[in-house]
Amino acid sequence: MRSIVFDAIIERSFLLIALTCFLFLALIMLFLFKEGIPIFKTISVADFLGGSEWYPTSENARFGILPLIVASVSVTLLASFFAVPLSLAIAIYLSEMASSSVREIIKPLIELIASIPSVIIGFFGMVVIAPFFQKYFNVDTGLNMLNASMMLAFMAIPTIASISEDAISSVPRSLKEASYALGANKWQTIFHIVLPASLSGIWTAIILGVSRVIGETMVVLMVAGGATIIPGSFFDPVRPLTSNIAAEMAEAEVGGTHYYALFAIGIVLFIITFVFNIIADYLSNKYSFKES
Amino acid sequence: MKKKADIIEQVVFLILRILSLSVIVFLLFMLGYIIKSGVSALSWEFLTEGPRNEMTEGGIFPALVGTFYLMVGASVVSIPVGIITAVYLTEYANSPRIIKVIRLGINNLAGVPSVVFGLFGLSLFVVFFDFGTSILAGSLTLGVMNLPVIIRSTEEALQVVPGTYREASLSLGATKWQTIYRIVLPNALPGILTGIMLSLGRAAGETAPIMFTAAAFYTPDLATSVFDEIMALPYHIYVMATAGTHIAETRHLQYGTAIVLIALVFLLNLTGLILRARFKRRLQ
Questions:
Q1: End-to-end distance of chain B based on CA atoms, in angstroms?
Q2: Ordered per-residue pLDDT tens for chain A, 292 residues
Q3: Does A222 sit within 8 Å of B20, measured CB to CB?
Q4: A119–B237: do the CB atoms touch at under 8 Å?
Q5: What kind of fold does domain B44-283 have according to CATH?
Q6: A225 has which bridge partners?
Q7: B88, B108, B258: residue with CB nearest A123
Q8: Per-residue H/E/C for chain A
Q9: ipTM for the complex?
Q10: Which domain holds residue A101?
């Protein structure tokens, strides 16, 4: 009898502990809003999001984050432009083309990329890729949007490739065999049958990868160049939302308007990634061969 | 017609091969370049001595120790909470609504950008709880960030333990908790250890969450309490590469530190992967 009571106590206390993640998520939201909302006593939401001047420390301080939003969006789009084709190539190569012995070498190497700390990738972009750009492309600074996007793409590849590969591998064999039986070759089968069938999984992969790119901090902090301007070319230095927080938090006084403004940027980031995760969650639950 | 389709296939496959290989080549080039440039800085003294002369000479001992403290501190938070959450989800939970709430927490926590974790740690632990910039605040921040990693790998490990094991134990009269503690957890242990290794690697390599919560530019002395601020490997690389007046002269030290950090993270991940491979083989 005692052990039954003990079991019930264990179950209840485990439930409480299991709710910790939700509690922390709620605390993150609570504290972001607590420290971020006060900025809107100084400036309206529209001026904050749409203002094109970010001079947080000048006498007549301006807190317009439009250049930062544009920087984040453009860096992310350019990074996706590189990362998506490369990741899909890897996913198709690993699941449909490579022999199992080649697969067993390539797959761990791709997974290895995911474990490289972002500060290392930022460091590499800074000391190797940036001087290369400056030398061969004749640009003012090698620390720019293109360089940051390339490094971010490299970081996003393992996420997009491995989730896409799962989706591609989970396409039922009967579908492929039906296609072969009708005389299609391997590529025709991949292109017309396998890819359309795994499209929702591939979208999930892309959205999760993109969400990681938007939130990545160290790479853009070290490589993107840091200018708070709206970029006119791929070779312009930019300052995305994440790097702006990281670069300026040390100098912002706790409880000052600058501090509030940086937390408000945190709210914007949190909402963007939250929405992306909900979409990814929805897509991966809605269409999946594994669950049906 | 057949001929044309086959030529297209060959061309496409060639392109896919080249694209895949280019990523691998870039990875190897990057690692090779860092190793080649930093290997001259490596020595026993580099690992066991502190920085000297405004960080232009000497080693990285305090940063190594600091990173070690953060790894241990983050684990103290994330391992027990993570494992218990996973056990609850796989072994106990039966109300769809509660499962949904817990999953919502885990999935969204996993998607929160690392710099937002930094903001969270700063506002809650550093300022609100008044821990200051400290090992404690940094460890708690990293620990919360690592929860989803531990939970997901523990869940995976628990799910592959065959249901027959549980039934055999229950039919012998064991209670649910006895079954979990004596049968399920020991069998899932290697899988759980994999998750722990991956989370340790993450705690060692992350920079943004500790920038405002734990890391110091330079501290000559090692920490004596959990309320001290510390140096850490990733932050050390960042400050040496971007701040100060000796950026170019200390390049080899930066590469050397990068090698140490990469080696540490790879070692942890490799251990994790080997454990996972063995675990899978044993259960098959």
A1: 47
A2: 567 888 889 999 999 999 999 999 999 999 999 999 999 998 999 999 998 889 988 888 889 999 999 999 999 999 999 999 999 999 999 999 999 999 989 998 999 999 999 999 999 999 999 999 988 888 888 899 999 999 999 999 999 999 999 999 999 999 999 999 999 999 999 999 999 999 989 999 999 999 999 999 999 999 998 888 888 888 899 999 999 999 999 888 888 999 999 999 999 999 999 998 888 888 877 765 554 3
A3: no
A4: yes
A5: MetI-like fold (1.10.3720)
A6: A238
A7: B258
A8: CHHHHHHHHHHHHHHHHHCHHHHHHHHHHHHHHHHHHHHHHCCCHHHHHHCCCEECCCCCCEECCHHHHHHHHHHHHHHHHHHHHHHHHHHHHHHHHCCHHHHHHHHHHHHHHHHCCHHHHHHHHHHHHHHHHHHHCCCCCCCCHHHHHHHHHHHHHHHHHHHHHHHHHCCCHHHHHHHHHCCCCHHHHHHHHHHHHCHHHHHHHHHHHHHHHHHCCHHHHHHCECCCCCCCCCCCCECCHHHHHHHHHHHCCCCCHHHHHHHHHHHHHHHHHHHHHHHHHHHHHHCCCCCC
A9: 0.92
A10: 45-286
Residue contacts between A and B (CB atoms, under 8 Å): 248
Number of separate domains in chain A:
2
Q: Is A140 found in the same domain as A34? A: no
Residues of A in contact with B33 (CB under 8 A): 124, 128
Look up the pTM and report it: 0.92
Angle between helices B114-121 and A241-248 (to 10 degrees): 40
CB A58 within 8 A of CB A41: no
Question: With contacts defined as CB-CB under 8 Å, which chain A residues touch B3?
Answer: none
Asked whether the beta carbons of residue A15 and residue B92 sit closer than 8 angstroms, the reply is yes
Residues A21 and A55 reside in one and the same domain? no
Q: Closest Cα of chain B to A283: distance in Å?
A: 14
**Same-domain status, A73 and A88:** yes
Say whether residue B207 is in contact with chain A using an 8 A CB cutoff.
Answer: yes
B273 interaction partners in chain A (CB closer than 8 Å):
108, 111
**Do A134 and A229 have their domain in common?**
yes
